[in-house]
Amino acid sequence: MKIVTVIGARPQIIKASAISRSLSEYFQGKTQEIIVHTGQHYDRNMSEVFFEELHIPRPKYNLNIGSGTHGIQTAGMISGLEQILLDERPDAVILYGDTNSTLAGAVAAGKIDIPIVHVEAGLRSFDKTMPEEINRILCDHVSTLLFCPTKAGYDNLKHEGFNTDISLHPTFNNPNVYLCGDIMYDNTLYFERIALAKQETKNRFPEDFILCTVHRNTNTDDKDKLTDIVKALCEVSLYRTIVIPMHPRTKKMVYSLLSEKTLDAFVNNKNIIITEPVSFLDMIYLESQASLVITDSGGVQKEAYFLKKPCIILRPQTEWTEIVETGSAFIAATNTDVIIKKAKEYLDCPPDNFPSLFGDGHAADFITKTIHSTLNG
Ligand code: UD1
Ligand code: UDP
Q: How far is the CA of 258 from the centre of ligand 2 (A)?
């Protein structure tokens, strides 16, 4: 069987490692996996570091698309991917999540009738002003195999009219929808032990800290929202050191949008450690040691939950609704006072309600076995 895996943005490279690992464990010699990198992320610490650290097969193709407006970036990817798919003629294309690379893969493969496997299907924020919401809806609706990580995702697809009966031979017009757990839970379990053993990481970070990441365009590109987040972080840093591995997008906008006074209070704050983006093993280490996680990242809010850490979500809503329902994650959006109040509350009284919501750690195996049993030949 020949499978093309499309990746492009940081979280997709990390996700792909779970599927590649499962393919090599169960289908060595029976499956050829061809990795195509769109080049959406290209800095060493946004791309290459993950291939090295997580032992992901090297891409056979890199489209080197780079950054741009949504239209320019996505269009470049579509035409590049179309040509590769026409040349390779795979039995299936695997797409992850909801980035522009996902959308481009969906349009390219869908139009030439190559079955699409969507990993992380069904998630919805119900906010179509998010580019990711458009990407994930469009991808789901041209997929042949849809793998939902959570019950909420599965239910969303049912409400959108997907038939949830399982067919032995799913097709474009008669897709199969599965509830299978989250491959990032698989990855977190798999890499946690390795991450915790890295002494060199322990030496680089303080003992007691809050971990924060921010990169969502609605936060970084809006002066008021970015200022509100930064003001909250400056206040919270009075209680605990904050470590911020900063996305390149955020770095650019912090320096171009913040007032001189706010910028100075932020970047010259001795209780705020701003670093370049870190590797996945370092990130897992940081998440597992932090007393609190503050983030607008989809992946980071989930990993905080996997590692039983409270999380303040810097968005007005989340696709991972179940973690908020437990009380261990809280939606604060960019409200400075709410972020500060909740941070104090979580630091003083950490939650301990983390029921199992993301499967059994073998979602990737379910996915590879299902691809083989339904799309092979
Ligand atoms: C993208 C995804 C988002 C995902 C995030 C993961 C879309 C629409 N958005 O957002 O869903 O959560 O990736 O991190 O696909 N840049 C660099 N170096 C890089 C990559 C980006 O400097 O290696 C800078 C560029 O200035 C670029 C900006 O970051 O313009 C944004 O990059 P882009 O890939 O367009 O979107 P992300 O915000 O990373
Ligand atoms: N991540 C990482 N280094 C960092 C920040 C994030 O390895 O400096 C990992 C994180 O552990 C998670 C994934 O990247 O697995 C999340 O990606 P991101 O926050 O960029 O995007 P999102 O999940 O919001 O799409």
A: 24
Q: Where would I find the H helices in the chain?
A: 10-26, 48-54, 70-88, 100-111, 131-140, 151-159, 183-196, 199-204, 217-220, 223-236, 248-257, 260-267, 280-289, 298-306, 321-325, 336-348, 363-375
- Report pTM: 0.98
List the domains of the chain with CATH numbers.
2-182+359-375 (3.40.50.2000), 189-348 (3.40.50.2000)
**pLDDT tens sequence across 315-367:** 999 999 999 999 999 999 999 999 999 999 999 999 999 999 999 999 999 99
Catalytic pick among 37, 118, 215, 247:
215
Which tokens belong to 180?
Answer: 């299978």
Query: Which ligand sits nearest to residue 186's alpha carbon?
Result: 2
Calculate how far, in angstroms, residue 46's C-alpha sits from the geometric centre of ligand 2: 9
Annotation says 215 is catalytic: yes
